[in-house]
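Input sequence (403 aa), recorded before submission:
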Amino acid sequence: MNKKQIRILLVLLIIAGGTVIVFRNRSHQSWSGGGQAVGQKLLGALPVNDVTQIIIQSGTNELSVARKDDIWRVRERGDYPANFGTISSVLLKLKDLKVVQAEQVGASQLGRLELLPPGPGSNTATRVELRDSSGKSIKTLLLGKKHMSKSPRGSQFGDMEGGFPDGRYVMTDASAGNVAVISDALSDLEPQPQSWLSKEFVKIEKVKSVAVRFPEATNSWKLTRETETGEWKLADAAAAEKLDASKLFSFGNPLSSVQISDVAIGLTPEQTGLAKPTTLTIETFDGLTYAVQTGAQTNSDVFVNVMVTANLVKERTPGKDEKPEDKAKLDKEFADNLKKLETKVADESALSKWTYLLPNWTMESLLKKRSELLESKKEETPEDKTTPPGALEIPGIVPTPDQ
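Predicted structure, token format:
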């Protein structure tokens, strides 16, 4: 091969290489409806701080979560406060979504990917729209079929058919048919109001007394104690009534870590069973009183209303022989605790306007009948029956007092 042929070959190689590079760049940028490509952020530079409303539509169901008076609220639950942690997590997740695969799909193929326009029918997408304070749409995203991973054979769970969701088919521009695959299934983006609610409920601590008033008065009872670690006593106990300490463990901190399941909207007291409730009254050493009314039960939850009142001590009584150098410290501790209690009362008082659904187990341990708190009476057995002292045991003969 002479020099001229070598030069021609080099030129051809350079041209071929350049063509490949151009083709790859064009292929990489073929997701061109919005100028996106594999590795780029799906929603571009999403201004999350401008988002004040999230609307999710799936089939005929719709959810609207909006920021009102600096508080995120769930419209479908009467503007009940939303879980800010959930809102923040969703927005940050959407902001960081990246395209891992992109392709142009014709309209006839959208059903296969469950990306048909939202509404009644099958193979439709879940529509997520982000709006600003003026109601203007910032971004719209269509969520389609979940991408399933292939479960490796021989794993500890066996060969799971279909694997598990590790991504999702999505579109940001329905008219262009630009379909992308992202590496997050976004399973939490569903129009289920209860999933977006703030789950916080009252937190009752330092319990002084617990009382339950049943519709049937003979089942009612009240327990009291003199200190936070003191022994529970049954009010108005009969001589034969003795508390079973093993059944009282749940009364020390009742409802201290309960999360609501849902908020009931549009139901009457007759429908919730709160027209004739069972009432739980709890007093604390801090001066708070909680009245918790319980109604009907579903398969998993019970309808509940709650009201809190307070009789807080506003001034501290100095201790006997209290040193002057300790007074400032103790006064500050008292003032800080009083402020904390006042905030707690304000926050929990706001809960009184709603009817809640709480998991059944949260109330079952507290709503015991009076007899269920007592020690079981021991039944007399033949071994417990004894012969009077001095009596002679003769088979077939019953001893008399004179024998």
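Checked by second reader. Residues 230 and 391 are 48 Å apart (CA to CA).
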